[in-house]
Amino acid sequence: MKNATEVDFFVEVGDFSSLTHRVHAFGIKTLYISQRDQSRTTDSWIALMRTMYPIVDPDEKILPICKEPALQGDLIGTSGLGQFSKTHPFYPRSLLEAYFTVSYLKSAFIPFLDDPPLFCNAKDICTEKLHPDTHTCLQDAGSPVYQFDCEVTDGVMYKVPKCLYGMVKSIPYDDLDRTGEHRGCKGPEVFVNITFWRPDILNVIENYERNIRTEA
Questions:
Q1: How far, in Å, CA of 205 to CA of 198, rounded?
Q2: Is residue 129 within 8 Å of residue 189, measured between CB atoms?
Q3: From start to end of the chain, where are the E strands?
Q4: Is the preceding peptide bond at 199 cis, omega within 30 degrees of 0?
Q5: What span, in angstroms and rounded, lies between the C-alpha atoms of 50 and 26?
Q6: DSSP labels for 36-69?
Q7: Which residues of 22-39 are buried (b: 16+ CB within 10 A; e: fewer)?
Q8: Residue 1: what pLDDT?
Q9: Which of its termini does the chain have fewer beta carbons within 10 Å around, N or C?
Q10: pLDDT surpasses 50 at 4
Q11: Among 79-83, 101-105, 156-160, the range of highest mean pLDDT
């Protein structure tokens, strides 16, 4: 167990949707990697971090892990430095929100031509873009993917993030040219399914808290 005053690194928490955002830095006291599945690649490993102090600002919303997977056609979202149109810059100056719909299929299925259909792996979230030019980008790896809920404010209904459903995978190296420059925003439409790993994550947290109580 590391000394409580040690900090491995810092994470920034706040509103990144504008250039005048307010950001708080939180030290990370401990870092965990969830149980690894040898069939998975490094872009799917899940890190669990514990801040030295609780995040209590009501404007800094903490999303619980979704207990249930989304259904076919459900709307999900993510935020990052991606692209939502061909004319939009590759690296915007603030975070943007992108929208997708959940698909049970890994790729589009054409009857009589595709046999059999390729179904999405339970460990992944397969999607279809709500807008054809929507992509995640290089710096979006690890960004949250969330389910939505409806919220009414002043008589107007809004879609707001409800729970953490997954995270954006790292961009394949094929999307870089030989000099290491990014060719454009062509990120994957398949995300890591955090809900699938929820029991494993909760087990890690429970074991950690049990060790803390034992040492106390």
A1: 11
A2: yes
A3: 9-14, 23-33, 47-51, 75-80, 96-102, 124-129, 144-153, 156-167, 190-193
A4: no
A5: 10
A6: PPTTS-GGG--EEEEESS----TTSPPPPBPSSP
A7: eeeebebbeeeebeeeee
A8: 34
A9: C
A10: no
A11: 101-105
Cα–Cα distance measured from residue 141 to residue 192, given in angstroms and rounded to the nearest whole number: 10
For residue range 84-116, what is the model confidence (pLDDT) as tens digits?
665 655 566 677 788 999 999 887 666 666 677
48 burial class (0-12, 13-18, 19+ CB within 10 angstroms)? Answer: middle
Q: Are 70 and 57 in contact (CB under 8 A)?
A: no
**Total-model pTM:** 0.78
What was the pLDDT predicted at 19?
65
Report all structural domains of the chain as residue ranges with CATH numbers, in order of start. Answer: 9-61+200-215 (no CATH), 75-197 (2.40.10)
**Are 95 and 83 spatial neighbours (Cβ–Cβ below 8 Å)?**
no
**How far are the Cα atoms of 4, 47, 143, 195, 199 from residue 30, in angstroms, in the given order?**
9, 10, 20, 22, 20
Dihedral of alpha carbons 129, 134, 137, 139, sign? negative
pLDDT at position 190:
86
Structure tokens at 176: 């870089």
